[in-house]
From TrEMBL:
Name of the protein in its database record: peptidyl-tRNA hydrolase
UniProt keyword annotation of RNA-binding present: yes
Keyword Amino-acid biosynthesis: no
Protein family according to the UniProt entry: Belongs to the PTH family.
Annotated Pfam families: Pept_tRNA_hydro
Amino acid sequence: MGRLLRRALSGCVLEPGPPGKRWLVAGLGNPGLPGTRHSVGMAVLGQLARRLGVAERWARDRRCAADLARAALGDAQLVLLRPRRLMNANGRSVARAAELLGLTAEEVYLVHDDLDKPLGKLALKLGGSARGHNGVRSCISCLNSNAMPRLRVGIGRPTHPSAVQAHVLGCFSPSEQELPPVLERATDLLLDHIPSEARGPGQAP
């Protein structure tokens, strides 16, 4: 019964909605590696799901190889997505979900780590190049567009180039205690930036 329910929920999540009334928010990362710097986008999605009260509603959708959760935001909906493919192929999951939802690239938000920003620094970028990020590069290629808004979460860059791979695939150290408030601020920034028409009457931005 649980399997049938999850399957039914996943089908509901990806039913096309009215134009301009739904956004996809994708947390980029590597499935099976929670807590690593490279998967901080997925951690932000987890915090966003908790904030919106849907942390227990993730459902797997095999059509796009991802876990999804649907949340109300005013009169609109957010569809949260955590790919089940490796970072270099995240774009296949994101593009397939966007196709099933009938969304354009401008309606897809990407959340990902950024080596070139100090730990805890956030920036919201509107389109542009991948800046060397393989997950973003995959999304640009699969969506055939670079117009996706992106929330970049700083993880810092190690001093020696040879240490980059171990750094991004490693877990946040005990001394990096800034992460919980960073997830909160990242969630605030996302919810503040979703287009104002997503908010119902009387909702503050």
